[in-house]
Amino acid sequence: MQKTTTEVWDRILKYIADNLAAQTYRTWFEPIVPVNLQDDILTIQVPSQFYCEWIEEHYIHLLRSALRKEIGPNARLEYQILVDKKKGAAPYVMRVPTVDKQSVANPEMKVPIGIMHGPGGATVYSFPGINKVRVESNLSPSYTFDNFVEGECNRLARSAGYAIAQNPGGTSFNPLFIYGATGLGKTHLANAIGVKIKENFPDHTVLYIRAERFINQFVEAIKKDGMKDFMIFYQNLDVLIVDDVQEFSGKEKTQDVFFNIFNHLHLEGKQIILTSDTPPTELKGMEERLLSRFKWGLSADLSLPDLETRMAIIRKKLYYDGIELDDEIIEYIAFSITTSVRELEGAIVTLTAQNILNKKEITLDVAKKLIDKFVKNTAREISIEYIQKVVCDYYGITVDLMKSKTRRREVVQTRQIIMYFAKQYTNCSLASIGQMCGNKDHATVLHACKTVKNLLETDKTIRSQLEEIDKKFRIHN
Ligand code: ADP
Ligand code: MG
User: Fold this and answer.
1) What is the reported pLDDT for 425?
2) Which residue's alpha carbon is nearest to atom 16 within ligand 1?
3) Of 209, 258, 320, 333, which is least packed with CB atoms within 10 Å of its CB?
4) Residue 28 vs residue 456, higher pLDDT
5) Which of these, 88, 83, 95, 1, lies nearest to 44 by C-alpha position?
6) Is there an atom of ligand 1 within 6 Å of 342 CB?
7) CA of 429 to the centre of ligand 2 (A)
8) Could you tell me which of 66, 98, 93 has the C-alpha nearest to residue 82?
9) 182 lines ligand 1 (CB under 6 A)
10) CA atoms within 13 Å, Cβ hemisphere of 265
11) pLDDT tens readout for residues 188-241
12) Ligand 1 centroid vs 284 CA: distance in angstroms?
């Protein structure tokens, strides 16, 4: 019996260790001694009442799922607390019922979790029901699904987001990890999901927070001895949206605390939505355990909108601003500005300001002048489309052929050269470069970049060809 108890406890600990920050695990779980396992009741000994309370408050969900996994659905936990040792009092026992199905379905019934009886039978502690506090969502009402234009560039992320809004926490997209370069709509989309959830489920507590703000809150909480409140606040959310999680990079303590919050919410079936400027696989300075969790649900990228989508976005913005422009002008803007939606908006603002200030109709000529000036003034990134066109022209093949499945040597090489330049000159992720070059994955792009680098070192002809192509990009810049 003793052996099985230890074995079972060891397996439970392993599960817990995998779900907690190392420091937390050492502090709260290593000192626990397994005492007995009988009739699905596991008795463990903890050093103090405070210990017991803390574990109950912070790790009960984790413990519960570990118990169920290792012992079975009827698993129960009892604590022995070493109190009043000096006075020779017997350790007393607290029983923690496992949640039944009903209380899982009804979050209001979660608490109180347990009641502890002191040696004299008096209740010494009961877990207070945490009342749902009103949480200010921080959502911006102007970023919605309605004004988020759909296109190939955002289809996956958008539809996953929409599905989540119908059933937060209930889809396999948990977390939803939205990534893409700056100005492509991550904040807009994440916010739109939050707004939709609030529309569909007014009672859900939704929080939108920028990662930077989260870090500051955490630092404040430590300073002001408010960690407990901080954790309670976050662990009670129904939906947590963290914008720009790449900001957590290199911040170990923040990652630890976020890791705990993430696990807690995820175990509870609460929805987590994250945005980042890089895919989880390319995030630097991030704990592996956290990265692996980011990949649990769905990672969806936002890429540069194609011409048609850019035009649709311009039309929508103009419509909201109550301004009309000729199609020719809209086309010209969409053709000229290929970097991000944010710049597209900047150009529209420039144009419409002109219209309002001068009370003049905007003609194509005026628009061209303004837009050209705008494009020159903004540090311009070369688009993948442009790179594709230049390289394909140079080698005399069509862009369509380059994107096709053919394995002809010269086509494969052209494709690899495009990938190489795209990595060098754009902010696109490896995944989105691959996607735009015939639906290849990020590993293929990585391989292509290595191959081309090798060729540059070993093959003189290729080197001079690439130098020539490179000039076009530099002039363009
Ligand atoms: P990111 O967070 O990725 O840097 P934002 O969400 O701040 O980008 O988007 C930049 C601007 O572009 C915002 O004003 C946003 O409304 C707009 N935008 C981005 N994508 C779209 C889209 N698909 N439809 C309409 N507007 C968009
Ligand atoms: Mg943003």
Assistant:
1) 83
2) 188
3) 320
4) 456
5) 95
6) yes
7) 16
8) 93
9) yes
10) 29
11) 999 999 999 999 999 999 999 999 999 999 999 999 988 988 999 999 999 999
12) 24
Helix (H) or strand (E) holding 327, with range, is helix 327-336
Residue type, 312: A
- Cβ of 187 closer than 6 Å to ligand 1, yes or no, is yes
Strand boundaries in 283-332, DSSP class E: 298-301
Which mutation among 188, 191, 246 tests ligand 1's pocket best, with the greatest number of atoms within 8 A of CB?
Answer: 188
DSSP code per residue over 349-408: HHHHHHHHHH--PPPHHHHHHHHHHHHHHSPPPPPHHHHHHHHHHHHT--HHHHHSS---
For 133-155, the pLDDT digits (tens) are 457 899 999 999 999 999 999 99
183 lines ligand 1 (CB under 6 A): yes
First to last CA, the chain: 74
Between CA 393 and CA 10 the distance in angstroms is: 64
Lowest mean per-residue pLDDT among 65-69, 74-78, 288-292, 305-309: 74-78
Are the CB atoms for 63 and 77 separated by under 8 Å? yes
Q: Can you give the pLDDT at residue 97?
A: 42
Tell me the pLDDT tens digit for each residue of 389-411.
889 999 999 999 999 999 999 99
Asked if the peptide bond before residue 34 counts as cis, ω within 30 degrees of 0, the response is no
- For residue 268, the 8-state DSSP code is T
The per-residue pLDDT for range 274-325, each reduced to its tens digit, is 999 999 989 999 999 999 999 999 999 999 999 999 999 999 999 888 888 8
Which helix (H) or strand (E) segment is 207 a member of?
A: strand 206-210
Distance 347 CA to ligand 1 centre (A): 14
pLDDT band at 350 (very low <50, low <70, confident <90, very high): confident
Residue ranges of alpha helices (H) inside 238-281 are: 252-267
Going from the N-terminus, what domains does the chain have, and what CATH number goes with each?
5-104 (3.30.300.180), 155-302 (3.40.50.300), 307-374 (1.10.8.60), 384-474 (1.10.1750.10)
Question: Residue 188 C-alpha to ligand 2 middle, in angstroms?
Answer: 7
176-179/298-301 β-pairing: parallel
